[in-house]
Amino acid sequence: MELTVRQTKGNVKINFMLFYFFVFFSFGSLFPLLSVYLKDSIGLTGTQIGIIMSISPVITILIQPFWGIISDYTQKPKLVLMLTLIATAVIGFTYSFVSVYLLFILIAGLLAVTQSAIIPVSDSLALTYVQKHNGNYGSIRLWGALGFAVSVLVVGRLAETYDLSIIFYVFTCLLLFSVLFVRNLPGERQSVQMNIKEGISTLIKMPRFVLFLFTTFLVFGPIYANNFYFGIFVRDIGGTLTGVGIAFLLAAGSEAPFMQVARSWINKIGILHILVIAAFISAVRWLFYFFEPSLTLVYMTTIAQGFSVGLFIPAALQYVRDISPGSVRATAVSFYSAFGNGLGSWFCTFMGGIILDAFDIGHVYLFFSLLTGIGIIVLLIIINIDRKKRLIET
């Protein structure tokens, strides 16, 4: 009996790992090279690219929280996840048939509606599973980082050998393939009946939660916008499409080992202190890029992404769930993701396009560094609030 339980847990974990690997492989095949495709193959300007790329985050701001609400309310997160994976794959495929600027905007908007559900819903499922079985979220989530890293290298090489439009075919096929693994994931269930209005009202009235949303805007915004501009940055300092893939492989691949150790570091140092360290390293990295170093130095310093992203993602997600009431955790995760992956990403991507046209790619990263620095200040404020709260409780 004990052996059967262990085998079942092992199978579930494998399904989670494969799911994250292929979903992020699909994301890595499209988003890092989409800006290059729009610039080199379609001939759009920096401002036009910035607008197209920022459409997805701004739609996410409005839609993503509702996916969390739907997941909490229906108690069918697996069904929500499967349907949105299929819809995202189909919509993403239509990119390959378009060459008109306004149609790119339309597709980007439709894609955002469905794609915005995938990560928060799957993260909520994974976190619920590891908390019930005393597992390690980082050891599961790192497979997403590996998938993303491998994807950009492989698909970058394929795009250089054949045509950039191949990014859309890989994106679609692997998203559809990832649906197979969702069927074997455990479904999240809450015994508490949720009042949607009361749940949202509860989250909004929590100072730490609201401040942390602001932090994700300032820190995650540049991190996600970097996925769109890093390819342009590497090309501008002399890299090829394969060079873009190598840079992403090193950067995203370095996240995996840090996600593996994130749990133990959080226990030793504390969640908020880990977040401050990760944000600081991220700010230094963006500032370094402002000086447009050589491609060799960029490759050498990509490990900074492991420190920043590899630690920040699991720590931030755990913090959100730790401070949120159990009955609205999926909603809380969706709001958190909407502010970072949505509002922050939109703002940084949109402003990045304008800065790119007015100055150069180096100034885009200077802007990212300044925002992240402000995010660190907000984190220090949250630490102070937590300290006072503990003193009152004792």
Description:
The structure is a single chain. α9 (207-236) packs antiparallel against α16 (361-393). The protein has helices at residues 2-42, 46-74, 77-93, 101-115, 118-132, 137-161, 166-182, 196-204, 207-236, 241-253, 255-269, 271-290, 295-300, 303-323, 329-358, 361-393. It has a single domain (2-180, 196-393), classed as Growth Hormone, Chain: A. It has 394 residues and is mainly α.
List its salient traits.
394 residues; mainly alpha; disordered N terminus; Growth Hormone, Chain: A
Would you give the CATH topology? Growth Hormone, Chain: A
Oligomer: single chain
The global form is globular
Cα Rg: 20 Å
Order of helices and strands: HHHHHHHHHHHHHHHH
Number of domains: 1
Identify the CATH class: Mainly Alpha
Structural class of the secondary structure composition?
mainly alpha
CATH architecture tag: Up-down Bundle
